[in-house]
Design goal:
By secondary structure, the protein is mainly beta. Helix content is 5%, strand content 44%. The chain has 1 helix and 25 strands. The strands form 5 sheets. Strands 2-3-11-6-9-24-25 form a 7-stranded mixed β-sheet, with no helix packed on it. Strands 1, 4, 5, 7, 8 and 10 form a 6-stranded antiparallel β-sheet that branches. The two termini are 38 Å apart. About 5% of the residues have low confidence.
């Protein structure tokens, strides 16, 4: 319950103490404690527009529902705070969709948040889900205010973001921006964080955390392993196609929190010039990528392309989605794709690459949802 001021009449001399007055006092104390006890979460400062207990730490009545939230479960659904997997404080909140037509997980709905046509802050939060098909949906429900400025009549709602079919198996920060104020009389809003909506038959779990907590660009975590691939030269005798080159390295993934591994490589494609004035220079582009893991438990980075450049080298990042790999040690192997045609020049160096010592790190991901433009953009650190 949001803070509601006491009226002068309620505290006038000789005014009898009513149940309504005591309920207001209790709710205001609960509101105050939620702001203080949010564990540094979004509502701890009590700032306007904050989500109280957004870190989901406080459950004072031990009913399994975080204070200042209402929980609803769809048919077959279950939910609980999760102390084993979080990104802000001790707890996240997990919904489980069991599968089956009409079944679902559920949602958490916030307390009232003050807004107006001049003020509607962004909505940041963190989430992940175990199955790509399980639907995550964020809904804003708008309310008017009464003569005292308190929340009053429900006006309508807007789906801010919905995602189905996109895998988010690792914790991902999301920030919903430019929320359109389509109800002119709305002065309060409640947000629903839906995990496993019942309109999709897709079993899986959805976790939420850090509701309303400010997001930063995902932090880079350097590799603990050394990957110092020296220069690998490619000659005209290269067989063509993707071939492993250089050393096999070992990468330790410290935990199952990261979305990407990025490794910098510097290189240059090749060219052939017979020195003749009449024959043009022939360029040979080169592609580089790496694999992490082995067999069925292997992922492949995006390729980077190198043309012949004059002068110097080009530095690029190979980006690999490691969200399917658990924590542990994995082999990393570089591969090149290079297709020269002048094989008679057996000693002619056509291209080369090496790794970049300072560009090797793990990173998470952040999704930015622009409601007014209807766009979704992923930001990587």
């Amino acid at each position: 319950m949001a803070f509601i001021a006491l009226t002068e009449g309620e505290i006038a001399p000789d005014q009898p103490v009513s149940n309504d007055l005591l309920t207001k006092v209790k709710n205001n104390f609960d509101d105050h404690e939620a702001r203080i006890g949010a564990g540094g979460g979004s509502g701890s400062s009590g700032s306007i527009g904050s989500i109280l207990n957004g870190s989901l730490e406080v459950d004072s009545d031990v009913n399994g529902v975080p204070d200042n939230f209402t929980r609803y479960l769809y048919a077959g659904g279950s939910a609980a705070r999760d102390i084993t997997d979080s990104v802000h404080g001790k707890y996240s909140y997990r919904f489980v969709h069991p599968g089956g037509v009409g079944n679902g997980g559920g949602y958490l709905e916030t307390d009232y948040i003050s807004i107006s046509h001049l003020y509607h802050p962004d909505l940041p939060f963190a989430f992940k889900k175990s199955a790509a098909g399980t639907r995550v949906e964020i809904v804003a429900r708008f309310y008017s205010q009464n003569a005292l400025g308190d929340p009053s009549t429900y006006i309508g709602e807007k789906v801010l973001w919905t995602t189905t079919g996109v895998p988010y198996p690792r914790w991902t920060g999301a920030n919903i921006t430019k929320i359109t104020h389509q109800f002119p009389t709305a002065r309060w809003v409640k947000y629903r964080f839906i995990g496993g909506k019942n309109d999709v038959n897709a079993a899986g779990s959805v976790w939420f955390d850090a509701l309303g907590a400010p997001l930063l660009v995902p932090t880079r975590v350097p590799l603990s392993n050394g990957i110092s691939q020296g220069q690998v030269a490619l000659y005209s005798t290269y067989p063509g196609g993707w071939v492993q080159q250089g050393t096999t390295w070992t990468v330790d993934i410290p935990n199952a929190s990261f979305r990407y591994l990025k490794v910098g490589v510097v290189g240059r494609g090749g060219y052939y010039d017979d020195g003749s004035f009449f024959n043009p220079i022939i360029r040979y582009p080169m592609q580089v990528r790496f694999t992490l893991g082995s067999g069925a438990n292997m992922v492949t980075s995006q390729q980077v392309d190198f043309d012949y450049t004059d002068p110097g080298n080009v530095t690029q990042l190979c980006v690999c989605d490691i969200s399917t790999l658990a924590a542990g040690s994995f082999p990393l192997r570089f591969y090149c794709n290079f297709n020269p045609t002048y094989h008679e020049l057996t000693a002619y160096q056509l291209g080369y690459f090496s790794s970049v010592d300072l560009l090797k790190y793990f990173v998470g991901a952040q999704v930015v949802v622009d409601v007014s433009e209807g766009t979704v953009t992923e930001i990587q650190g």
